[in-house]
Design goal:
- The structure is a single chain.
- The chain is α/β, with parallel strands linked by helices.
- It contains 17 helices and eight strands.
- The protein has a single domain, classed as Aldolase class I (TIM Barrel, Alpha-Beta Barrel), CATH 3.20.20.
- Strand 3, helix 7 and strand 4 form a beta-alpha-beta unit.
- Helix 1 crosses helix 15 and helix 8 packs parallel to helix 9.
- The longest helix is centred in the C-terminal third of the chain and has 38 residues.
- It is globular, with a radius of gyration of 21 Å.
Length: about 375
């Protein structure tokens, strides 16, 4: 039995993480979680924000009957599948934003955000992304919503334009250090455009979602193939020593880039005008390889001015047995050496991260199209029933 004033193990763990400078966000949303009070409970336990994506909404909307009553009403109003999706998603995002609003106020607009992604079908359409981002931001009509825009070459000018217009932006699908540098440049340029237009910089929030575990999945596959093809025990041992190292090394170097960028005179000038830093957000932090510790991509990436967004099972595992320590800046030279060792054996990290971006955009687009197809099937069913 928990007494008044007592805090749970989960609350204590999340509070300790905050004391080390990291905010834990919940990478999930579904109406039944909102209806049951589970989201409210997570926020009370110390979750400081939420993220969503097309795959999450596909599972929530197409994977249950929870939305069917609203879906039927919208279908009978003559709405298209995309219009129905947006209405359902915006409603969930609004409810989540309202639950998180006290966090937003308490943290002086640092945390308490929920993210909604533009259509992944617009990933290579700058103008379409800008229009949809502005439309969704206005529709949700909550100060603590972030609009997610992918870090594609076409997404970068949209990110800059949306920040200049005063939107809160979550830049998603960042895999490479080179692209991360371009994302931070777009952030700075967007705020500078806003300043030049005589608009305030206060209250504009942005995170840069740097994807972690997928790099290990790809690089480990290449390493396993090399190990299987080798007859040299020493070479095999060297290759095994690199398994599970690429993702954390890449992320540690991204954090070093973040510190250098936001410690610059260029940002200090914007900060003096009220600008917030664009925090790096570690995404894709669930463990894909069962041979690795189930909280490795949380435990190994803890440091100041960061966010980690994790799915339910990773959050539960971390609350149960995660270890909190300042790990993000440990052994940076070791991280550099990992990248050198991978390059020395012919593994091109730039090519790998380019591949991951292409695959990430396609995966979200495929999920979105599958979701729209599922909604369309239900829409036709409901319309037919009334004829």
């Amino acid at each position: 039995m928990k007494f008044v004033g007592e805090i749970s193990t989960m609350q204590e763990k999340f509070l300790t993480l905050q004391q080390h400078g990291q905010s834990l966000w919940y990478d999930n949303i579904a109406r039944d979680l909102l209806d049951s009070g589970e989201i409210q409970k997570l926020v009370e336990d110390g979750i400081l924000g939420m993220t969503s994506n097309p795959s999450i909404f596909k599972q929530a909307i197409a994977g249950s009957a929870t939305y069917d009553a609203d879906l039927r009403t919208l279908a009978l109003q003559g709405k298209s599948a995309k219009e129905i999706y947006e209405a359902l998603a915006v409603s969930d995002i609004q409810r989540a934003a309202d639950i998180l609003r006290p966090v937003y106020e308490r943290t002086n607009k640092l945390d308490g955000y929920v993210s909604l992604e533009v259509s992944p079908l617009l990933a290579h359409d700058t103008h379409g992304t800008i229009e949809e981002a502005q439309r969704l931001f206005e529709w949700v009509d909550r100060p603590n919503v972030m609009i997610k825009i992918p870090a594609t070459p076409e997404g970068l000018p949209a990110i800059e334009a949306c920040l200049a217009a005063g939107l809160n932006i979550n830049v998603t699908l960042i895999f490479s250090l080179k692209m991360y540098g371009r994302v931070m440049e777009a952030f700075m340029a967007g705020l500078e455009r806003r300043e030049q237009a005589g608009q305030p910089l206060e209250g504009i929030a942005s995170v840069a979602s740097f994807f972690v575990s997928r790099l290990d999945t790809l690089v480990d596959k290449i390493l396993e193939q090399r190990i299987a093809a080798s007859n040299d025990p020493a070479e095999q041992a060297h290759l095994r020593g690199l398994l599970g190292k690429a993702a954390i090394a890449n992320t540690k170097l991204a954090y070093e880039l973040f510190k250098n960028t936001f410690g610059s005179q260029r940002f200090e000038r914007l900060k003096a005008k009220g600008a917030q830093i664009q925090r790096p957000l570690w995404a894709s932090t669930s463990t894909k390889n069962p041979a690795y510790r189930d909280v490795i991509y949380v435990e190994e990436l803890i440091g100041p001015h960061t966010v980690n967004t994790a799915p339910p099972h990773t959050i539960a595992a971390f609350a149960d047995h995660g270890i909190v320590a300042d790990t993000l800046e440990k052994d940076i030279e070791g991280a550099r050496q990992v990248m050198k060792d991978l390059a020395a054996i012919g593994i091109d990290i730039d090519a790998a991260t380019d591949q991951l971006l292409r695959e990430g955009v396609k995966a979200f687009a495929d999920s979105f199209e599958a979701l729209l197809a599922a909604i369309e099937a239900k829409r036709q069913e409901f319309v037919t029933q009334t004829v």
